[in-house]
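Annex B. Sample input.
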Amino acid sequence: MIKAPISFINKFQEDVFYETKRNICASGAYGNGKTYACCEKLIFLATKFPNYKCAILRRSGTDLNRTTKVTFFKICPPELYDEKKGGKWNEHKGYLKLINGSEFQFLHLDKIDENVVRGLEINSAFIDQAEEIDENIASHLDSRVGRWDKALPPKDKIHDFSRNPVTGTYDIPSYMLLGCNPEGTDHWIYQQYHPDSDYHNELLEDPETKEKYRLSDTHVMYQAAITENPAVSKELKRTLSRKSKSFRDRFYYGRWGITEGSIHE
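Annex B, continued. Sample output.
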């Protein structure tokens, strides 16, 4: 098994990394470490499970290249995709293959649409700045998570994993990850993931089995302010703290909801 380095700057990142619920939202202020935590989780999964497939998405191709990819490759060392050992990195196509056969696709909505998302066969996905993404796109992507069935357990742990009773393939962990800044309480992310959302806690019924469940059984949100990241400079924190109250609530403290003055501003 190939390995990637793991480190946490705060408890928020650690909580996101070790969470086992299928749908995980890393929310909060600028610079709280959410993109780092989600990328680190996917890289770990891809190194642990050979032939694992991941998709990383963002609305804008410029932002994907300028920020999300930069964070990803800070974590992923070149030896994990060394071409001499079978790895590959095609920046133009946004395609990365690790030396154990695991793959990453970097996608942005400047060039892809709903039909592309519908055709994905992946284990896990991460949407960076998910508040910018239409709910319909996110829903289709969520339905593709766990569809790829060729990933394998580590050789020394192979007997610890169950198999699908129909296909015989291994049950490999799959996750739908979101990284976002807060919006209003009517936003789809708040409705599905925020612990104070009525829909998040509403008792629902499976249409086939009639089993009762809540979104909170599978959906979880972790939140953090910029102050919880000790790596962010004091000057940047002070700069953000001098902004308007509505700005501070969203991007300094990481609070959801329409705040005082935000409508006028």
